[in-house]
Amino acid sequence: MSQDASTEGDLRNTGMSLKHDREWDYELDRIVEAVEERNATKVGLQFPEGLKRRGPAVADDLRALTDDDVTYMLSGQPCYGACDLDTYLMRRTDVFVHFGHSPMKESEKIIYVPLFSNVDPFPMMEDALDELPEEDVGLVTTAQHMNRFGEMKSWLESEGYTVHTRKGDDRLTHEGQVLGCNYASADIDADQVLYVGGGKFHPLGLAMEHPDKKVVIADPVNNVVTVADTEKFMKQRYGAVHRAMDAEKWGVIFCTKIGQGRWEMAEEIVNDNDDAYLITMDEVTPDRLRNFDMDAFVNTGCPRITTDDGPQFHKPMLTPGEYRIAVGDEPLDSLSFDTFHGTW
Amino acid sequence: MSQDASTEGDLRNTGMSLKHDREWDYELDRIVEAVEERNATKVGLQFPEGLKRRGPAVADDLRALTDDDVTYMLSGQPCYGACDLDTYLMRRTDVFVHFGHSPMKESEKIIYVPLFSNVDPFPMMEDALDELPEEDVGLVTTAQHMNRFGEMKSWLESEGYTVHTRKGDDRLTHEGQVLGCNYASADIDADQVLYVGGGKFHPLGLAMEHPDKKVVIADPVNNVVTVADTEKFMKQRYGAVHRAMDAEKWGVIFCTKIGQGRWEMAEEIVNDNDDAYLITMDEVTPDRLRNFDMDAFVNTGCPRITTDDGPQFHKPMLTPGEYRIAVGDEPLDSLSFDTFHGTW
């Protein structure tokens, strides 16, 4: 099992950037129907980063199927999940289509097109069996492969496994679904979990959230089977916490993205610490934080920016739980993965 | 006169990044009064890029002057002008303070603190006289030096000049004020204009907008007198237009920042051109546009991103006027600087 240091921990590699071309189902009929039903004249289309370049072709197809007076608008905002809706575009269009993710929260205004993959998951699942010696196994996947989740489960059962699945919590749409920030669907009674899907982003989070479980990755996009290894990330987390222990001035980041805000958490920290300053932003980037002369940051927004992009920031960047350790409120061995619950 | 290629055309160098420390008047009394009057519990503070690191100290001073139950929030969003309000923070705070710019549009919600400079403009103005041989001279400056505009004008008159000044249009608050996107205050009856202020960002725009005028820069921040030279920029503009003439697919950018949107202009282009795609975003950056497989872009947002940052984009980026030339609707000699008018 080799880990590619240049891609893991890179939020752009979420399994959506393609090694080989896949066919996606853009569900144009469903969009056209909504446009006609609502007499829409403005339609917003939002794609995740890896699929943004398909946007113009999708807009072309939709233009051919709808009246000339419909204007299609492509969101140019970064998008890293269903938590990350372009609310500006959503509010100013009659139909707003969010591609690539399943609903974090149902809304009449938004059409979610999950973009189910047509990749065959079974060859890699078969290869993964060597890494799954026990009878009990958990099964999880991402929105892209949800359309075949039932088949995957049946197949594992036919191989003699007792398959454990769970819906997780409100943040998750489907049984067995994981998000980069939520692995409640893996709170199951098995010591090994099979993740079927592209990339290492999701299984790395899963392994950090469930350090007692073996997380086996069957990746049908890159045709590879690996076991998630969190060692590098955990070392980075402990290193960041230690470096932040001397911090005097803290920047507390409140993320303004619709599904990434934890206001009470941010407010509590600044209320309890006179040397903490509340900073609000949508995209949390090294460039933006460089403008603030802080000794350390605590990020109440997307936990994956903290854990995966952490080393790119000029000062230690901690999760709220890690902050409690750094300021001495909690012991070091309480360090755990930061997860997001609820919708917005 | 030497031009520093590494700083001109860099939007971060707007004269706000300091070579020597200046004292700013943050007008804390005015802010405290508003906090008390409105019984505010949430106060938003927005600084331009070069002054963001002063934010925590300003928040500390305000905390000492107001009740404990007031929470101060620092905007971490990039900010490049009064056009660039953090509307998220503005809508979610009881008092919203925008530092470093004068009002583009008055609003009861917003307190504008222009941050007047205490730098003495007269030594550099005196040095600039050698470059101003004619009797008639225009006089312009930025928000930071507006507090001494009357003195500057009187001083020039005492030196024997006939000084021409103008308020410009709705986008400008003060007589003689310029913005990076609006030089209506220099529409005066003189062939030479004296710009007093830091950096080359504003006078370069002024010289591009008024190519028939000599623009002399008296920079009291960096202690230098120069004459604006637009040659490099004009060559880049013609080069970009020529490279875009072969473009088939056009990305048309509509900027969602409150003071940078020109919707009718963007809509007209996509309505007239079947190969044009509307892309919406707040920050217009090379990274974000790289996601779109276009041959060229036309930016209906901030013209300074187009003219000053243009070469950083992977494909030619044109102003709306330059687009008309590239697609053959207008002759090449109609090329002119793109200005913004009106508020929002």
TrEMBL record, chains A, B:
Cofactor dependence: [4Fe-4S] cluster
UniProt GO molecular function: 2-(3-amino-3-carboxypropyl)histidine synthase activity; 4 iron, 4 sulfur cluster binding; metal ion binding
Chain segments annotated as transmembrane: none
UniProt keyword annotations, A-Z: 4Fe-4S, Iron, Iron-sulfur, Metal-binding, S-adenosyl-L-methionine, Transferase
EC number: 2.5.1.108
Keyword Iron included in the entry's annotation: yes
Superkingdom to which the source organism belongs: Archaea
Residues annotated as signal peptide: none
Top-level EC class as recorded in UniProt: transferase
Pfam families, A to Z: Diphthamide_syn (PF01866)
Keyword DNA-binding set for record: no
Catalytic reactions on record: L-histidyl-[translation elongation factor 2] + S-adenosyl-L-methionine = 2-[(3S)-amino-3-carboxypropyl]-L-histidyl-[translation elongation factor 2] + S-methyl-5'-thioadenosine + H(+)
InterPro entries hit by this protein: DPH1/DPH2, DPH1/DPH2_1, DPH1/DPH2_2, DPH1/DPH2_3, DPH1/DPH2_euk_archaea, Dph2_arc
UniProt pathway: Protein modification; peptidyl-diphthamide biosynthesis
BP GO annotations: protein histidyl modification to diphthamide
Family: Belongs to the DPH1/DPH2 family.
Described function: Catalyzes the first step of diphthamide biosynthesis, i.e. the transfer of the 3-amino-3-carboxypropyl group from S-adenosyl-L-methionine (SAM) to the C2 position of the imidazole ring of the target histidine residue in translation elongation factor 2 (EF-2).
Designated name of the protein: 2-(3-amino-3-carboxypropyl)histidine synthase
Organism: Haloplanus rubicundus
Taxonomic lineage: Archaea, Methanobacteriati, Methanobacteriota, Stenosarchaea group, Halobacteria
